[in-house]
Amino acid sequence: MTDCIFCKIVKKDIPAKIIYEDEEFLVFNDIKPIDKVHFLIIPKTHIESLLECDETNLEMLGKMLLLGKNLAHQHGLRGFRTMINSGAEGGQEVFHIHIHVYGGSEKLAKI
Ligand code: AMP
Ligand code: ZN
After folding, report:
1. Nearest ligand 1 atom to alpha carbon 28
2. Structural domain count, the chain
3. 75 in catalytic set
4. Which ligand is closest in space to the CA of residue 14?
5. CB 61 within 8 A of CB 40
6. How far does the centroid of ligand 2 lie from the alpha carbon of residue 73, in Å?
7. Which of 6, 16, 65, 109 could crosslink 96 through cysteines, CB 3.0-4.6 Å?
8. What is the pTM of this model?
């Protein structure tokens, strides 16, 4: 996916504040944070969204969630939120699957 902005971040073609990287995943700060801490977890492989996932992606999805928890703790968050926007009608703007992890505000907006 040559025109995918997150694939470009994986290839280091465009910069991002990377906070974690391994063979499978990349984690970087959201460019427009909605909280004191706000990062995005992506698989290095291009998958458009949760809508494209099935049972074969269970391990990847589980690993992403646990990575989010561990990195949230490392960033001093005792509690945090996770969000996955799926499809244009689900508010997705970048079509490379990602989990938002954010927190740190004193006051939590109720959703
Ligand atoms: P979503 O609506 O879930 O697709 O959200 C995409 C997120 O990616 C938004 O929160 C953007 O602020 C973020 N984003 C877009 N481009 C970049 C970038 N180059 N580096 C970091 N975050 C980005
Ligand atoms: Zn991509």
Report:
1. 21
2. 1
3. no
4. 1
5. no
6. 27
7. 6
8. 0.96
Going by alpha carbons, the residue nearest to atom 17 of ligand 1 is 31
Strand order in the sheet with 81-83: 18-21, 25-29, 37-43, 99-103, 81-83
Pocket test for ligand 1, best of 11, 31, 38, 49 (most atoms within 8 A of CB): 31
The residue contributing the CA closest to ligand 1 atom 13 is 30
Give the torsion through C-alpha atoms of 29, 16, 87, 79, to 10 deg. Answer: -10
d(CA 62, CA 3): 27
CATH number of the domain bearing residue 25: 3.30.428.10
Phi, psi of 38 (to 5 degrees): -155, 110
Print the domain residue range for 73: 5-109
Tokens of 62: 């589980």
Summarize pLDDT for 41-95 with one digit per residue, the tens. 999 999 999 999 999 999 999 999 999 999 999 999 999 999 999 999 999 999 9
Q: State whether residue 61 is helix, strand or coil.
A: helix
